[in-house]
């Protein structure tokens, strides 16, 4: 059984192959870094938008809790309930 003769690979071909590998690794490194920074920026923006939405929701709830027509709403279940304000309100209504 005769073995096939070993072919010599051109030096230019070896250099080209290793250059392509190095270029691919470099491209992958820089592309991944760019994607990572864009993802971080998107995350920061979404966190900011979430906080703004929470603030808007809190403002809306606060506006709902404030009386707009001059009437006063009292929450008797609130631990900070002020009975004196409630009594003064009742007095002012029946005068």
Automatic annotation (TrEMBL):
State the compartments where it is located.
Mitochondrion inner membrane
* Listed name of the protein: ATP synthase F(0) complex subunit e, mitochondrial
Q: Which domain of life is it from?
A: Eukaryota
Q: Give an example GO molecular function.
A: proton transmembrane transporter activity
Q: Is Transport found in the keyword set?
A: yes
Source lineage: Eukaryota, Fungi, Fungi incertae sedis, Zoopagomycota, Kickxellomycotina
**InterPro entries attached here?**
ATP_synth_F0_esu_mt (IPR008386)
Q: Which UniProt keywords apply?
A: ATP synthesis, CF(0), Hydrogen ion transport, Ion transport, Membrane, Mitochondrion, Mitochondrion inner membrane, Transport
Family, according to the entry, reads as follows: Belongs to the ATPase e subunit family.
What Pfam family is a match for this entry?
ATP-synt_E
User: What would be one Gene Ontology cellular-component term for the protein?
Assistant: mitochondrial inner membrane
The keyword Transport is assigned to this record: yes
What are the GO BP annotations of this UniProt entry?
proton motive force-driven ATP synthesis
How is the subunit organization of this protein annotated in UniProt? F-type ATPases have 2 components, CF(1) - the catalytic core - and CF(0) - the membrane proton channel. CF(1) and CF(0) have multiple subunits.
- Principal localization? mitochondrion
Entry function = Subunit e, of the mitochondrial membrane ATP synthase complex (F(1)F(0) ATP synthase or Complex V) that produces ATP from ADP in the presence of a proton gradient across the membrane which is generated by electron transport complexes of the respiratory chain. ATP synthase complex consist of a soluble F(1) head domain - the catalytic core - and a membrane F(1) domain - the membrane proton channel. These two domains are linked by a central stalk rotating inside the F(1) region and a stationary peripheral stalk.
